[in-house]
Please model this.
Amino acid sequence: MATKLPAAQARLYKNMFVCKQCKSKLRADPRKILEKKVRCRKCLKTAFRPVRKK
Ligand SMILES: [Zn+2]
Model:
């Protein structure tokens, strides 16, 4: 059930990323994603995309 509040949705999806390899989600600082300091906990890849983008 999605919330109606755009601000709340932004908060929910903010800093959420999806692993391009195994599709698992995690929350991380976007700067760390760009700097590849964040690894997927499942497959250890550093390739992520924002969660909402298709
Ligand atoms: Zn992964």
